[in-house]
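Hi L., both proteins are below.
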Amino acid sequence: MPFILPIVILVIWYIITSGLHLVKPYILPSPIDVCHSAIHSLSSGSLIENTINTLIKVFSGLILASVIAIPLGILIGRNQTLEELTSFVISILRPVPPVAWIPFSILWFGIGSVPAVFIIFMGCVSLF
């Protein structure tokens, strides 16, 4: 029973893209084209390489956030003066979604791994 909806979605996707050609392939490729690309990415090793690079960025941001936010949170929680000094800035920055930091990260760090790690860092730190 739980497989019925995904199968229906795949059939509709196939009909829209390959059967009726209602959508251009560069906008929404057919499921068959997606499968061919997935097989090519797996066989060439690029999928595994990109997965490892992504995991490195995610864990770098998470570790950096943990190293900074946990001690900072303990410090702020134990020191009333420090809490009063930082509560305004934390209250302003906490509701900002991590996606909103993308333009700033590109301006500050350029294109590459550093902006991605920064956005993950900000997403983790905003939880504290």
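That was the first. Here is the second:
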Amino acid sequence: MTDPRKPSVLFVCVHNAGRSQMAAAFLADLAQGKVEVRSAGSAPADTVNPAVVQAMAEVGIDISAETPKVLTAETVRASDVVITMGCGDACPVFPGKRYLDWKLEDPAGRGVAAVRPIRDEIRVRIRELLSDLTD
């Protein structure tokens, strides 16, 4: 159940194995419990991308135990803000929700060197989002 005093954010990408996992991990880390954080995918992978796990470990965030989750209408309904990252038409839209679409490169099939700039861009966006949510 969501806490009515906390904003809730859902990050969605296709496989929930890269971008949305990084975004959720950064927001959970930086918000320190002030924001409820979820992530999901329209066609979840079996595991989180190992290069993404490594890139996040480099900045002190361990996501090695995370698993991709399937996007459901209930997850969207329970969120105040839905941030999509390339999930296309698979993302359900409900009135009263705030939707943002972040255009980010997909780290799928890339090594850690290619994931780092994506990770860093996500961290910048998360800091801006957090400032907006907690002002």
